Each structure stands twice: as structure tokens, then as C-alpha cells.
Amino acid sequence: MGVTCISSTKIRFSLHAMEEETVPVQLEETDFSDGIIGCELSFYVKVHSERDGFVSTQGFTFAMARAWNCKDIRVSRIQGSILQVFFATERDKERVMKQGPWCFHNKLVVVEN
Predict the structure, then answer these.
(1) Cα angle vertex 55, ends 53, 59, to 5°?
(2) Domain positions in the chain
(3) What is the rounded distance in angstroms from the CA atom of residue 103 to the CA atom of residue 113?
(4) Which of 32, 59, 81, 94 could tie 47 with a disulfide, CB 3.0–4.6 Å?
């Protein structure tokens, strides 16, 4: 049984600085290294349904943590039914990606790294 994955999600946004906010900011690698590591321990999911709408992040977190047997996951909404799932360990992330297919409330959950 084949599963069609969604293509990489591209999110476009624009940040406009106020005139008083245009002073350059110097960032060190240590300022964002935790964020980079956190993203490496995450993947995107899309919950497919006829009505591509709202998915409860709290409900998804609770249900999928049990299904995936992971004690520590965090879920953030990207847009509508597209979510980013963060894992505590690389082992949990890889195991979840290799197993499946996954469903949430009888809707297909497509995983993309």
C-alpha cells in the first residue's frame, strides 16, 4: 500500500521593522544552536481529511504520544492541518518515521522530514 507524501511545505512571511528597530543585531552561534538541534529532532505532519481544516494540537499530542509510545513530544501548528512535531530523542523520531502508516481520528497522518 503506497502513501503519497506532501511536498516540502514552504511558508512565506514578511517582517517589517519599524524605523527605530533597524539597528543591526549581532548573533552568535550559541544564540540559536538549541533551536537548530530542536528542529533536527522534528518533522512535519499533515492530517488529511475531506475538510482540510483545524486539528487540535492538544488532542493530536495526547493521541499520538500514546500511539507512538513517546513520553515527551511537543506539537506546534504551522498552518491548518499541518503540524510540526518535536521529539526528545533522535531514536523516537526515527522509529516513528519508519513505522506507520499513522491515523488520527480515522484520518491519514502523512509524515515528512
Answers:
(1) 165
(2) 39-112
(3) 17
(4) 81
Best CA proximity match to 111, nearest among 90, 83, 92: 83
What element of type H or E holds 8?
none
Q: What is the pTM of this model?
A: 0.65
Cβ-contact 102, 5 below 8 angstroms: no
pLDDT tens-digit map of 41-81 = 888 888 887 665 678 889 999 999 999 999 889 998 888 88
End-to-end CA distance of the chain: 20
* CATH 3.30.70.330 describes domain 39-112: yes
- Answer for the pair 101, 108: CB distance below 8 angstroms, yes or no: yes
